[in-house]
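My current task is to audit a protein record that another person submitted. Please read both lines and tell me whether the tokens look consistent with the sequence. Do not assume that whoever made the record got everything right. I have pasted the whole thing underneath without changing anything:

===
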Amino acid sequence: MLIQVDLSVLGPLRVRLRSLNDDLRVTLSVVEKRFRDFIMKELPLLVAALAEQGFLKVQTDLRVEPIAPGSLADEIDPLKDWEKRFEEPHQRVDISL
């Protein structure tokens, strides 16, 4: 699962969840190191909450990377290149005799 939210205090935050059997991998991405430090302090609470829901093997990763608003759709949409062809102006050839 891939989720992106734009939080007023933290800016864009991207959450990737991958589950396989009893294992859960949570990857969080923020745009600035100071936001990473803030979230790092809260990760134990997240892991504890997930354990209460039955996820006993949780791996977490917290990254700082550029995230543009709306970039999530571009990342996961397999048809984005196909759709963009319709948005681009088509070249025309006018032949007058």
About this structure: The mean pLDDT is 79.
